[in-house]
Amino acid sequence: MLGRQDIGTLKVGSCADIVAMPGDPLDDIAVTGQVDFVMARGDVVRRGGVSV
Length: 52
Prior knowledge:
By secondary structure, this protein is mostly beta strands. It has strands at about 20, 35-40, 45, 50. A hairpin with a 3-residue loop joins β3 (about 45) and β4 (about 50).
């Protein structure tokens, strides 16, 4: 839709922000309250703001 080939994939060189949670939020919206970590621009941030 956006005309970009680097989004929607997880591979080296792709633009990827990830929100990791223990389940599929489309099946159970409650899992969005249980985020394990977020990866944005290659930086991993865990609960409590700790960057890895």
